[in-house]
Amino acid sequence: MDMVVSNLQQQRAVTEQLRREAVIKRVPVSQAVADIVKFIQEHEQDDCLLVGFSSQRVNPFREKSSCSLL
Amino acid sequence: MSRDTNVKVSPIETIESLTKEAEHLKIKLEDERQKLNDVTLAAVADRLEIINYMNVKPRRTLKGHQAKVLCSDWSPDKRHIVSSSQDGKMIIWDAFTTNKEHAVTMPTTWVMACAYAPSGNLVACGGLDNKVTVYPLSLDEDVTLKKKTVGTHTSYTSCCTFPNSDQQILTGSGDSTCALWDVESGQLLQSFHGHAADVMSIDLAPSEIGNTFVSGSCDKMVYLWDMRTGQCVQSFEGHESDVNSVKFHPSGDAIATGSDDATCRLFDLRADREVAVYNKESIIFGINAVDFSVSGRLLFAGYNDYTVNVWDTLKCVRVCLLYGHENRVSCLQVSPDGTALSSGSWDCTLRVWA
Which of A29, A32, B104, B327 is the most exposed place for a label (fewest CB within 10 A)? Predict the structure, then answer.
């Protein structure tokens, strides 16, 4: 009997989850993707791993210059 | 003799009726999602310029762990890194100098999770001890003196993170749940039930007011959770094996995943579906960790074949490979200001790329 009750509860949780997800408002992929592209384009110039550093001097992990003035 | 018709009888739910409804809802959901699937990401990105030059090089190697590096996290100061290892140690590194500032021995091996608190003054870690323990960082005294166990799962702790303050910790566990803990009292504030297997990875929504997080699991599923209610808000399927890593796109509107099925994927929250798959026929190894560059254009992924693959998230092509590690790449993370990438490996080292 306990088994039946717990199975029922489990199935109820699954169905309730699907009911919640069924009423989610969705946007077309074209719109979602356009917004992702827009976000990326607005931030690309600040993306050092993508566009590099304006000068290696501003790279905090640059190698220290191996030659020095005597 | 008339029957009382005022009594409202609630429909009796049986397993059969619930199962039937679930099947119906699944079909409806798939129909709805498919109806809005009007274009592919790669097609939209076709007009964009390709990324033809990347100057990311290996800059530092952090040596000191005696066994596999399992997890790492950047400090908010963009300079320090905490790492944890199979050797039972947690190390705090100065990534600029490669010096070790602290080395803490845990009461367990396989320390699978570690994280910096937003203040930078506290770290948390856990693993096969099933716990999450915090260590206040101080240069003056032994950090183990003030350690504090915050939470305990019924299986290993696989991941942990601080949601927006030093006061709370969110954990994921092999017991298939996630949990939100109060650091001060050790109280369980919320638990998150739904996954059918080990939770491997969690990530918080990037917005500071965001109250959602995402989880990836060995049940192949990706769930989006509401931290306040404990409810699953959205679920994403598609992966054919364990989901080892999940990460929010910096826009907060999408989630990248890495899986044992040798693919990374992009799921969009508003379209409520998968919008991209990042893979090649030649790639047959699983992915343990993913992270975005600050714009979200690049996706870094750490593979079991010892490499880090860099994907163009829009054109859905591989930009380059980062070679260096001599064993599986187990963890990687872009630094908070986006200037560097750290990676950890079963070769016992961490590397910094910039």
Answer: B327
Architecture of domain B15-353: 7 Propeller (2.130)
Neighbours of B21 (CB within 10 A): 17
Residue ranges of domains in chain B: 15-353
Q: List, for residues B252-298, the tens digit of each pLDDT value.
A: 999 999 999 999 999 999 999 999 999 999 999 999 999 999 999 99
Query: How many other C-beta atoms are found inside a 10 Å radius of the C-beta of residue B219?
Result: 18
- Give the H/E segment covering residue B241: none
The residue range of the domain holding A2 is: 1-29
Domain count, chain A: 1
Residue A47 to residue A52: CA distance in whole angstroms: 7
CA separation, residue B6 to residues B2, B3, B9, B12, B13 (Å): 11, 9, 9, 17, 21
Chain B CB within 8 Å of residue A5 CB: no
Q: Which chain B residue is nearest to residue A55, measuring alpha carbons?
A: B55
| Alpha-helical regions (H) of chain B | 15-35, 41-44
Task: Say whether A21 and B194 touch across the interface (CB within 8 A).
Answer: no
Question: A40-59: per-residue pLDDT in tens?
Answer: 999 999 999 999 988 888 88
